[in-house]
Amino acid sequence: MILTIAAREWRSLFLSPLAWTLLAVAQGLLAWIFLLLVQDFQVLQGRLAGLDNAPGVTDLVAAPLFRAAAWCLLLITPLLTMRLFSEERRARTLDLLLSAPVGTASMVFGKYLSVVLVLWLVVGLTALMPLSLTVGATLDFGKLLAGMLGLGLLAAGFAAAGLYLSTLTAQPMVAAAATFGLLLGFRIVDLQETTGQLFGYLSPLRHYDGLLLGLVSSADLAYYLLFSAMFLGLAIRRLDDLRLRD
Amino acid sequence: MKNNVLMQVERLTRRYGETRAVDDLNFTLHRGEALGLLGPNGAGKSTTLRILAGVLAPDAGRIVINGIDLLDQPRRAKQAIGYLPEPPPLYPELTVDEQLHYSARLHGLSRAASRQAIVRVKERCGLTEMGRRLTGNLSRGYQQRIGLAQAILHDPPVIILDEPTAGLDPIQLREIRNLICALSREHGVILSTHLLAEVQITCSHVLILRAGRQVYSGALAELDPRQQPGRLLVGMNTPPPVTVLARLPRVTQVDDLGEGRFRLHHAPGALPQRIVVELAYDCGWDLWELTPESVSLEQIFFDLTVSQGDSA
User: Fold this and answer.
1) Does the distance separating the beta carbons of B56 and A99 come in below 8 Å?
2) CA A47-A53-A56 angle, 5° bins
3) How many structural domains are present in chain B?
4) Which of A63, A79, B36, B132 is the least buried, fewest Cβ under 10 Å from its Cβ?
5) In a domain? residue B308
6) ipTM of the complex
7) Do B91 and A1 touch (CB under 8 A)?
8) Model confidence over A132-178: pLDDT tens digits?
9) Is residue B307 assigned to a domain?
């Protein structure tokens, strides 16, 4: 049932130009950044050669690229998740799901799966760029995989937050704006050193940094799982509540 | 066949804030019946159907579908329901086949069973040629048919249709009504409409709603105008006192309309004109008018939905 819903969602997404446009924009911007990073690395390469324990190509190209990709996700996730439930409520197609013998959790997981897969496609396409460097350089695959894992988890967290916000309103644009605000808020909290450790700790981006350095800590992994689970749980509750209030 | 209860609804109530959209609804649907939910706009028809389809939760009451409680075991009960909301829930970017396939899979049909079911319902709903068209590009009449096809894909015992003939042209109207009549022979059908004619054509039973309350519920045959209290207009040149007319058998009430004209209200069944004519002749009332005032189903509907109490 989850797969049926995810397949329909995925299909609708790629039948509209939106998904293609977002993928193209993300890929174009990241490719540009990638080229700049490679150029910088070539300039620095000579000076690095003399240093002990110098950062390698993975640290100087892949990690900053993934950091930029996080910004990119922050921009495209709201546009992908805004439709999930808002659009169905606006077009009154949600009744088809609600009257079908499908549990609320299956609906949420099905839609979540479709968006996460699209975002992981972005992660995969991003990772292809540093991978192309294997032609002429030696990469630290451990660090690269940790970075991919981090970006993938970050995407999953963003998608869960966006999905929940799209259950709150029947206006897709409102859902997109709210999601963008929330994700940007997390970013700002993370940037601000003085807000105290608690708020910084709550930001999904704080936990991303360790993974970019190649540090896969179970605390960070657990954080992302809890972050996603919380928003999915809220979405399920909200949908059940809609039956009573709507 | 008569005892085959498909849906039982008891004391169904649903509030929106202070207003009671549905208030204490009770009815039973058997196999082979078509129940028409009739009422003016805003009477609570759609809300009732949405509750019955499991889309909304009621505030109070019990709904048993095919022996399964909808609120206790929603997933099992929903398996037995086919629901056509208004407007039909279609994804405009999907083709008719894709839309039907999605709906079939949502209702738990296997891939092979879905394919068979889709061919079957497309033929039944006149969509055979439309399989590869996008639902968003089709006319309202076709969209309505896709919605109907969606509702009967998994061959549910109970079919719930919200305004199934909205937006159809006269030819489509007739086709859809024929289809509903055919469906109601093997299934139980509940449909909502604000058109009385629709109920007369397609339904065996009717439930009339006014401001969320049921004001009439029963077989359509019982709403037959001949079974309702009637009125007889009488005009005479030398009328007797009103009290004499009021004492006539079967007459329940007499209105004096002036100039020798009276309106006699009488009990359901045969008109009392024979007695009136005989007495008029015997007593020399000089009868010049005797007109039965026909009571149409429209009039009954109007009386039930509007003229009782408030102006809802």
Assistant:
1) no
2) 65
3) 2
4) B132
5) no
6) 0.88
7) no
8) 988 887 888 888 999 999 999 999 999 999 999 999 999 999 999 99
9) no
